[in-house]
Backbone:
């Protein structure tokens, strides 16, 4: 019984991962460049496209890490 | 006029018209209740929410204006990509809370929530009016999307006859929104998205083959448009403009009434969380669409004499239609243009429903008919949705297009001022209702003044911080003013005048429903 709330707290830390996309795409001087190109596409574009994928994967990961906690709460309330 | 393209276009348009009316029977509910008409009974699962929000947020105007900005102004137009990347982690954390508290208390609009949280009718009214004013020009701009594709097929002209196709499209839209409510755009969104994905994926494969590959396309773009210009000494230049546009737009997007309607119609908070991971698929699509702007530069459509009259009338907004006309056979032009036009119907329908909900719940019910029945409430919302749509239509037909664009620009600056009450309000009831109202007003005045000082032509305001010039999206700058005023005044009022509004919510309301 004592273990569950503590797990919940730990799971909350996963939310910090959601800050990564903000850092990745808002620091403009880092990616405002042409080289290195990828298949003729300047860095500026493929870098930002890459973050679309990273951001979606990070969000999905956080969902799977946070969601079991929600399920646990729900099950517990059913038991009550 | 291109009869093949027009035939395909009309056929697809007819298909969604039928769907729009059939939708009233889909997952049947009592459409005399505003929950059913205006939120589709809060029963949309993850997949339909994905289609609905995708169709709602990535509008036809976006699909025309983003590549137009890339075509005309260059890399700055790409801010749409970071904007629609960072919005989802934000939504993931914040908006399940709005869903839960709204489910618990039966809130239909953000203004309903503010009323419940802060117990202030005036603050709720401010939030409702901001939502309505920010959305109206947005609806009007959806018509611009339809106008440019009609012009692309050679259907344009002056006077009533020239406007007739647009009027017909809008009458159809108004009729099925009236009868089916949110179910209509939810169903049409599925067709719209299939058309849009098919069009864009075809475009980004076929057009580069015709133009000799992506390397060649980027090589033909002048350096000044390919990446952001290096900021001059003493200024953060386009760098801060790009980042603040992305951040400010992301913070504002889900405050718009049509986004809130999309969020609240989901069947669970998990549907919203899952969609935060799934909606970036549309962001990827939007990035590809932005690239069409460069393809339009590389293809040289801007200098083709056949397109000159339309470029003269519609400016860079004609870039994508011109590119499609130059690259595709007629039947596919009809298909692609139908995708854009139907792409305008979905958000226009949701926006008009959302503003109608706001008017009905937070103005009519409170100030004119406090004793109205549920059936009357739903009826008022249906009529309000008609008024909103025809208002938008009159706006676009009678006034120059630039007013709609300028007002939409201001709309972003206005709607973000509801962030302290709506978003921060989801976390704390600490703010004083009067402080929130004064902060809101300060933000609106400062933000509007910033945009006005730039002649309403741009929303990037050059802030002076000491020696440094920081070009900043006016919405973000004025939001900071709003926050400072709100916090300082809350602190003062809590000491001097601590009569707080009644908070009808408790922390548990914001978390996962336990029943």
Residues:
């Amino acid at each position: 019984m004592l273990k569950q709330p503590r797990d919940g707290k730990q799971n909350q830390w996963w939310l910090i991962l959601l800050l990564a996309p903000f850092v990745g795409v808002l620091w403009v001087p880092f990616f405002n460049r042409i080289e290195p190109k990828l298949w003729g596409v300047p860095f500026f574009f493929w870098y930002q496209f890459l973050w679309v994928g990273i951001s979606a994967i990070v969000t999905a990961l956080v969902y799977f890490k946070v969601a079991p906690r929600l399920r646990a709460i729900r099950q517990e309330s059913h038991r009550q | 006029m291109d009869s093949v393209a027009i035939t395909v276009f009309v056929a697809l348009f007819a298909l969604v018209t039928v769907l729009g009316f059939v939708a009233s029977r889909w997952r049947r509910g009592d459409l005399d209740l505003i929950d059913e008409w205006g939120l589709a009974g809060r029963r949309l699962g993850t997949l339909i929410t994905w289609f609905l929000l995708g169709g709602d947020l990535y509008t036809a105007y976006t699909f025309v204006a983003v590549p137009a900005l890339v075509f005309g102004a260059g890399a700055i137009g790409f801010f749409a990509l970071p904007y629609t990347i960072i919005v989802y982690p934000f939504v993931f954390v914040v908006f399940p809370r709005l869903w839960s508290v709204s489910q618990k208390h039966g809130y239909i609009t953000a203004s309903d929530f503010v009323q419940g949280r802060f117990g202030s009718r005036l603050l709720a009214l401010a939030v409702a009016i901001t939502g309505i004013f920010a959305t109206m020009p947005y609806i009007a701009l959806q018509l611009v999307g339809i106008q440019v594709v009609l012009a692309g097929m050679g259907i344009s002209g002056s006077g009533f006859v020239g406007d007739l196709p647009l009027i017909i499209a809008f009458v159809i839209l108004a009729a099925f929104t009236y009868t089916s409510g949110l179910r209509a755009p939810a169903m049409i969104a599925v067709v719209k998205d299939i058309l849009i994905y098919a069009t864009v994926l075809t475009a980004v494969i076929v057009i580069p083959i015709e133009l000799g590959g992506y390397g060649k396309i980027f090589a033909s773009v002048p350096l000044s448009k390919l990446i952001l210009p290096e900021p001059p000494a003493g200024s953060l230049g386009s760098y801060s403009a790009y980042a603040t546009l992305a951040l400010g737009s992301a913070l504002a997007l889900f405050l718009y009434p049509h986004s809130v309607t999309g969020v609240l119609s989901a069947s669970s908070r998990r549907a919203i969380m899952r969609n935060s991971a799934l909606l970036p698929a549309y962001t990827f699509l939007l990035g590809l669409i932005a690239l069409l702007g460069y393809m339009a530069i590389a293809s040289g459509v801007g200098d083709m004499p056949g397109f000159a009259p339309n470029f003269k009338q519609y400016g860079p907004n004609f870039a994508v239609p011109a590119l499609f006309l130059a690259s595709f056979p007629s039947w596919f032009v009809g298909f692609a243009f139908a995708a854009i036009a139907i792409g305008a119907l979905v958000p226009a329908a949701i926006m008009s429903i959302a503003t109608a909900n706001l008017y009905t719940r937070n103005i009519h019910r409170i100030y004119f008919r406090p004793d109205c029945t549920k059936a009357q409430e739903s009826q008022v919302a249906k009529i309000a949705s008609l008024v909103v749509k025809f208002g938008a239509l009159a706006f676009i037909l009678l006034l120059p297009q630039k007013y709609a664009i300028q007002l939409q620009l201001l709309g972003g600056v206005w709607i973000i001022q509801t962030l302290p009450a709506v978003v921060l309000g989801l976390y704390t009831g600490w703010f004083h209702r009067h402080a929130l109202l004064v902060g809101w007003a300060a933000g609106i005045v400062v933000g509007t003044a910033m945009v006005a000082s730039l002649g309403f032509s741009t929303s990037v305001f050059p802030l002076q911080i000491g020696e440094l010039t920081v070009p900043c999206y006016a919405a973000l700058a004025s939001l900071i003013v709003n926050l400072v005023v709100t916090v300082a005044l809350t602190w003062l009022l809590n000491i001097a005048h601590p009569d707080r509004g009644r908070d009808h919510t408790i922390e548990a309301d914001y978390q996962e429903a336990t029943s």
Residues 54 and 229 of chain B are 32 Å apart (CA to CA). Strands of chain B lie at 460-465, 468-473. The interface with chain A takes residues 75, 78, 81-82, 85-86, 88-89, 92-93, 213-216, 218-219, 226-228, 238-240, 242-243, 246-247, 270, 273-274, 276-278, 280-281, 283-284, 287, 291, 511-512, 514-515 of chain B (CB under 8 Å). The mean pLDDT of chain B is 86.
